[in-house]
Amino acid sequence: MKITTLATFAVLAAGCTGAYAASHANLAANNGMTLYTFDKDTAGTSVCYDDCAVNWPPYMAESGADMPGLTSIERKDGSKQWAKDGKPLYFWVGDTEPGETNGDGVGGVWHVARP
User: Alpha-carbon distance 89 to 5, whole Å?
Assistant: First the structure.
């Protein structure tokens, strides 16, 4: 399923320099790719590693970076990952184009991140 959200693309087309854009329906990285949350994570902690992280790449944050509306959490290897309301954010390898939401509902535990 491919859902195109005009609000997201309008922000991106306007030259959004932030690392994510919020639309009325979902959060997307600056490249337009949809961001997801994982029900098995707890606030401020990712449990998605190894094979999980291959299929659900973490939305990595640069050390010291600041992004309004998002916080960074520390992964077990010391790297930083963006989070919304404490929930770590991920991409889905099954999304190949901006605006796709193919990962929504996978396994009943993956969900499109909402603003």
Answer: 19
